[in-house]
Structure formats: C-alpha cells, structure tokens
C-alpha cells in the first residue's frame, strides 16, 4: 500500500510539474520581442523603439505619422489586453469575454451608445487626424500579429484578440469620460430624488456650501443659515443601517509656480492624477522624437494612455502640462412626460461564442437616452454624447513654444473637461479649463423641465472659458474643488466638486515658502497631515471623555494620533472610521428611502460634511433614533460600532494596537484576474504595501486608489524632473518590466522622467 501511495504521489507531482512547466513555457512564448528588426508597409520612413531599465519607450521617427505607428506597436506589445478592456468597457462589450456576469455593466454602458458615437466621430474627423488613428491602429495590430502566442488573459478566457480600429482609440477616451464624469449624472439624480422624496429644505440642507473653499481668486460661495429639516417619524422607524459608499472618482492634484519662485527662473509644475489602481497601471512612459514641419527637433516626454497616440501629461522641453478633473457641470437630466415621443433601439450584446447574444432595448428621446426612476422618465443630456466630445487635438501641445499658445489650444481639446496647468521655460504659469464644455447657460443640480432644455446650445462646444496667467503671487493650484470664481460658478455649475480641504492644504503649503525645488514639490505631493480630520479628532476626544474608564485605551491612542495618516497611527484609523460611521448612521433614513428606488447618497457623501456638523450642533430630536436619549449616546454608539467593525476585519486578537493605518489602508494593486482567482495573486499582483495617505489631504491613497503617477518638472531642466508610477510598463507577468518602478513608488523614492541607458532596441523598416 505504501508503495502504491508513493507511486500516486510521484505521478501527481509529475503531472503538476508538467502542467506548471507547460504554463511557464507558454507564458514565455507570449513575451514580445523587444530587440530586433521588423518591416512594415505602413511607414513612410524607418522608426526605432528603444527601452531603458524602467521600460520607458523612446521612439525616433521622421514624422508624426510614423511615430504614431511606433507608439501603437509598443502599446500593442506591452498593453494590448488592457487596451482591449478599455474599449470594451466604454462600448459595453465586456460580456463577450467574461460572460453573463458582465451583462449589468455592459447594459449601463450601452445606455450611452459610445461605440456608435466613436464610429460617427471618426467618419467626420479631419483627414489628418483620421490617418493618424489608422496609422496608430496599424502599429498596434502589427505588434499583436508578431506574437507567437496570445497573452495569457486570452488563453484563460478562451477568446482571441480582435483587431484595433481607429474608433477604438476614441472609445479609450470615452472610458476616461466614464471614470471622470460617470458620477455626475448619478449625483444629479440623487439630488433630484432627494427633492422629490424629502423636499426643497432637505435638498438645501445636504448641499449647503462648505467652509472648505480654495478658488484661485479667493472668492467664497456664501455660507448661509440653512434650517435643519424635520424628519418624519416613519423615516426613522424604517431606516436600515448600511454603508454609504465613498465615491472614488475624486482625486488629482496639480499646482505650479512662476519662475519668480525658482532658482532657475523657469516655472515649475507638479501633477499627480488620482485614479483607481489595477495591474497594469493605466499610464505608460514614453518619449517621442521627430522633426517638426520646419525641421526643428520635437522631443516630448511623459505618459501616454495605451490605446491613444498622444502624450497625456508631459513636457516638450519648452512647455510642460498636467491635468486634474475639473468637475464643471457637464450633465443634465430632463424630466419628460408620457406625451414625449420616444423611440426604441435594440443594442445586441454578444456573449462568449459567436452565436450567443442578448437584445437590450434602449429608450431614446430628442434630449438623450431615457431612464425611469421612481415612476418618472428622465432623459440624459451629457457632454460625452455630443459630437465635440472626443478628438485628437491634444496632440497640439507637443509643438507649442510657450504657455500662451497652450491656453489658445485648450478649448479645442476633445477630452473630459480638465484643469489644465501649463508652465514654460520662460517662467510663465497658467491655468485654464480644457476639454468639452456645453454652451448651455443653465446648469442645474436637479432635473429640468423640457422647456428649460437649451438643445441648440448643448450642441455647441463652449470656447469662452476662464483662465489665470501669471498671478501676482506666482502660485496656482487645483485639486478637484472649485477653481473658478464664485461669479463663474453660476455659469458653469457644479459637476461634483471635491470638498476643498485638499485644495486648501496645498494652497497653504505653497504660501509657506518663497522658493521651490523639485524635491519641495515631491514632499508636498506626499503631505499626509490630517488637517481635515483635526476637528473630528477633537470632537471624538471630548465625546469619549464622557466614559473615561470604558474608553481609556481608545482615548490614549486617539491622543497619540500624530495628526497624520501615518502608517503606525492607530488614532488616525479610529477617528477616520468614526466619522464615516457617524455619517452613515445619521443619514441612514435618507439612504434607506433612496435605495428603495435604486438611488444612493454615495455620489454626494462628501457634500454632507457641513450638514453633519449642523446636526451635531443642533441635536434635532427628529433625527435621533430610538432608543438613544441624546446625541452623545448616539455618537458614542457609532464610535463603538465603527471600532468593532475594524477589529472584526483587521484584528486577530481584538486589540486596538492592531488597527494601525498602514495595515487598515494597505495598498493592494491587483490584476483583474486575481480578484476572481486568488491563486494567481502572487504571480499577477503588485506586492502589498503599508498604507500611507488618505482622501482629504495631498497624499491621496486608499487601498486601490491614489496617485497613478507623480510628475514634477521645470521645462528645459528635464534632467532634474521626476516621474514615478506605481507599476511597470508591461502587462506580461514574466516581463522584466511588469513591476519595474513599483518599489520606488511604494518607498516614496523618485525615478527620473528622462530615459536612462538603453537596454533594448527595435528597428522597423519601411517597405515602400
């Protein structure tokens, strides 16, 4: 019997070894060839693609068309599956790979019909831009065709890569619309339903202006005395406790100083765009080198978005640029009645297998696609639905010589509206909204009537946008809160601004010094001081002092919190969790009613800060649930519940000292496949890293959300510039570039913007 067991064990181990060896060999076969000679009939002249130790792609070509081909080739080698997911995400075609579990997401995307819009835009596009997209697509497809074996993602899903088309590059931009503006319609719908269910007074209460404001002109939206509305008794009686999810769309910092505040006399820019993390990370390091029409050498260094042929954030040695999401209002719901003429279009959603599909009926009106909520039909007007939403005008930044030229270009960009920050080597610094903005003049937080809809103006891209050039004090900043003046606010509206605490902290830090270096800016990017939570810290200390014996250990940890989102701070974890739980508990009656109609407070949770403090000050009895006799008892229970939830999730022994913020907020950057197949985590995910930073401070970091890149530069001094990215260039787990650069990001070290020593070189020869 023992001999049989040994034979079976050896046989089993041998089979496992053969399987692993085959899988490993197959993975190796799918690695792209990073050095060698290729040929293409889609080039005018030969191009080269070089890579350094970080995998930065350095492209040399004789014209911008050939450079687009080479960038497409590099993207196709390193990131094709990521590109495939981006186009499928916006087009609503993920179910074709992942099956029925992706149907809900696909239906929500088909509501916008973005593939049809992308194809329509390409058909009408300027011939030069259309040729650029086609050339880029040719490069992508050539790289995929050169692979000996499809990447492992296609092998695991049993699917095959489909050719890249010019419209797919626009779908990638549409994916950014969904990420950056997807919560704007949800926000407006939540506010619409709050008004319908709970009245004007409740709407005013939850949307009152915050004291956290940091507009560039120092203008203040008025802090008005809003009466606390009474809650109906049945709302408290039927309230169910649930977590109001924090929206993760808020993020991105950029700031700049003029040359008067640097030793070199050149202006300096900092930009860190905050996005959801995944493997591979969204951005891709690249440097493009080609001659201009006048023969001048153009060199553009920065990050590109795989799927599109542009440098999104970067420098051309004369001018540097960066973006943050602007949150100008770009969406409106229109409440329509039964007399409105509606049509139905059938969207066919494919499932795995060529003969398998479902039909999804979509209601359309002259205002936009239609959704029924709480018995009422609403049509959505959104800037992403407009003809001017996407284009390739962003490429114009590559050849500008100064900030003024960049400001002139800004209104032509077909991208989600951004805070564009520009600096140049002559010392100029400027800010301007850049991207698609509807010309309608009546933005609204709640649904409009059909009579109020300015259809003609919705079809026109706004060109009159505010700007600031070289402010007297030499400083500019944006961090997703209101940047425009209070007067301009009424014209451009609120599309979901951040609270403003982060902007204030950045602004205040910029005024602490009169001269800055790249390292000064990097330290500011990593600023995790808990200024926003300090009032909550003080309130919690006083609250728990009512029961000093019960909470003796808690109070000590909270007193020692270090006033930062520091890795070893237990007190920070306790304060932060308490605030979130108290918000959830206080607004549970409102959330319960909204959830019954599939709406949530989540898109406006950050707006609730002033209202929450007002509740604590007024202590209205109509908001106090049974069996609590007073608000202190209610708040203490919220603290006890939040702490117990932390212990249940993060502690093995029930000890408070295990709740340090670095553990609770650990950085976990995962591949989408490892989330479904945890056994693949070791192979596919980035190493788990002690957490640092949080939501309401410059150093934004949650477990899977944060600074997707850290960029600092003075144009003309690129050798001193910084570009740090939390992941590698390649999406292939056996590539040397899969995790290259991640350790430096995790350890708050800097990596250079400019490429280093060349390790690989591809030459693609033109075949005429």
CA(first)-CA(last) distance: 72 Å
The largest β sheet comes out as:
11 strands, mixed
Give the averaged pLDDT, no decimals: 94
Biggest sheet: strand arrangement: 1-24-2-3-7-8-9-10-16-17-18
Helices, by number, come to: 26
User: How much helical structure, as a percent, in the residues?
Assistant: 25-40%
Give the beta-strand count: 24
Strand fraction band? 15-25%
Q: What is Rg? A: 27 Å
Spatial shape: globular
Topology (SSEs and partners):
Blueprint: H1 2-29, E1 36-40, E2 47-51, E3 57-60, H2 64-91, H3 95-98, H4 103-110, H5 114-124, H6 127-146, H7 152-157, H8 166-181, H9 183-198, H10 200-206, H11 233-238, E4 253-257, E5 268-272, E6 274-276, E7 284-291, E8 297-304, E9 311-315, E10 319-325, E11 331-336, E12 343-350, E13 357-364, E14 370-373, E15 376-382, H12 403-409, E16 418-424, E17 429-434, H13 455-458, E18 468-469, E19 475-478, H14 486-492, H15 501-510, H16 518-525, H17 534-544, H18 552-559, H19 570-586, H20 588-595, H21 608-618, H22 631-650, H23 661-664, H24 672-676, H25 681-684, E20 701-702, E21 705-707, E22 710-713, E23 722-724, H26 742-746, E24 760-766
Parallel strand pairs: 1-24, 3-7
Antiparallel strand pairs: 2-3, 2-24, 4-5, 4-19, 5-22, 6-21, 7-8, 8-9, 9-10, 10-16, 11-15, 12-13, 14-15, 16-17, 17-18, 20-21, 22-23
Describe the structure in your own words.
Helix 2 crosses helix 8 and helix 18 crosses helix 19. Strand 20 and strand 21 form a beta hairpin. The radius of gyration is 27 Å and the shape is globular. It is an alpha+beta fold and 768 residues long. Helices cover 36% and strands 16% of the residues. The relative contact order is 0.16. The longest helix has 28 residues.
